[in-house]
């Protein structure tokens, strides 16, 4: 069994188990799903825990769990819970014997509430620190703050702004201030990637400058609350990129599904540069 606050939670109201429950899954995934299905609620279903009692290694189990998430049998969701003393990341995990589509799983994701018919379990993160800090995620994988995750995803949207892990750690506090003022992940990505100069010589410096210059104002009418749940952040089951729940289909983001990548829009040239380049073109044509 997992420690208090961790572990499997089953969707309620399902039909009883049968031999055909996971017949449509590949052999390995069906075996793992059947094993998890027989475990009681509260059991530790992290990759490391499963590897100790099953014949599969951690890599195979991680791949299988991602497959089960895409197939609709597993939901893993991370949320930032903000209280008077700061914020902490929690993970909510459900398992369903019957595959559920995105609409069924998403019934309570946006509202920050448990999925209908499911019981949620929060995995407490370490005590709040003055600055954003990594937290432990299920399966032994090291999690990151919401600001770190959105900065790490900037390079996937626009390669010219790819940041190193050290850059993300340095700038995550600035991104966190955006979230504190009511901005979402898409707001940060749009502010960082729209109207880029060509080329971007120093991505980290450019991102830092925009995070400061475009920081939205504090809402004047924001009520003071003692406890609130920030919008859920869901990770792609393949590349682990963060995003809103509605952006993932079968547990995968658009890039992993093969959807066209967003186009970075370079900033328009000022009029004097346009005239100068036109003059260069006319001069070259005359010489020719």
Topology diagram in text:
Layout: H1 27-38, H2 47-53, H3 58-71, E1 74-83, E2 86-95, H4 102-105, H5 146-152, H6 154-157, H7 165-180, H8 185-193, H9 203-213, E3 228-229, E4 234-235, E5 242-243, H10 254-257, H11 271-287
Antiparallel strand pairs: 1-2, 1-3, 4-5
List keywords for this structure.
288 residues; mainly alpha; 2 domains; 3-stranded antiparallel beta sheet; 11 helices; 5 strands
Could you explain the architecture of this structure?
This protein has 288 residues and is mainly alpha-helical. It has two domains: 1-143, no CATH class; 144-238. It is 36% helix and 9% strand. The strands form two sheets. The chain has a three-stranded antiparallel beta sheet with strand order 2-1-3. Strand 1 (74-83) and strand 2 (86-95) form a beta hairpin. The longest helix has 17 residues, at 271-287. It starts with 26 loop residues before the first helix and ends with a helix. Mean pLDDT is 75; it is low at 108-142 and 224-229.
